[in-house]
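Reagents: none. Just compute today. Aromatase/cyclase.
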Amino acid sequence: MAAPADQVYALIRDAVDWPQHFIPTLHVERAALGPDSERLWIWATANGDVTHWTSHRTLDPRRRRIVFEQEVCSPPVAAMSGEWTVDDGPDGGCELVLHHTFSAVDDLPENVDWITSATDRNSRTELANIRALAENAQADAELLFSFADSETVRGPSEQVYAFLQEAGAWPDRLPHVSRLDLREPSEGLQLMTMVTRAGNGSEHTTESVRVCFPHDRIVYKQLTTPPLMATHIGQWLLQETDDGVCVTSHHTIRVNEAAIPAVLGPEATPATARDYLREAVGGNSAATLSLAKRFAEAPHAV
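Predicted 3D structure written out:
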């Protein structure tokens, strides 16, 4: 990679940010176990499925080496370990190597093939994502942005959470949602296809994976985004305060620079796109927060 080794190591080290950088990674939870040790709970796509595992990582910043081992695997993986290494290269660049060792449930050939395919595909995608980010860090800084909207609800937090978690009812509750297909393959995991209506009457379809943490958080990542977005992740966060329940909608978006002229016109810039998305996405969030407040504060919710 034509990027400094320390910069590349930082991308690998900061695993909580992986969903905004790595296409397959959906969500990461982190717990520090010591100065150079941590536990990660990771949700990701693999061969078209959504999978979840727990990893222990040991970090060696001096050698720019990170060793990982899955403590809890998701079948057909029986065991998985490996390491990231970043070495200095010529002309200020570096070489990044990602190594895996694994075993499959019952050592079945079909399980070995599934893991080999998923690991190879995801690893190649992640390496390409890291290379693109590291070699174009300045440009990406102009395309990636975050924002949040909040509403204070004087009602039961369980009702607010229910409104946000019961996305299957959104077409009847949210004016900007035309249709929504919701599947829940396991407890706390939701796969959602949603058709959203814009202010001009146009519609666009998004596909998302949501991970629910009752009764205080729902995190999500869009697998299929509108044309102007390359990445969209977010979360609904509920926090008890003296004034009620503070409900916050967080968004992190990477603008799809190639789509700017077609969507916003030839004179539009990344700043134009950021403003447009802030208003459009934030507007939908504000509407959802307002209706969640009304729902939770209604007499039936008491």
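The CA atoms of residues 204 and 226 lie 7 Å apart.
Action item: order primers for follow-up constructs.
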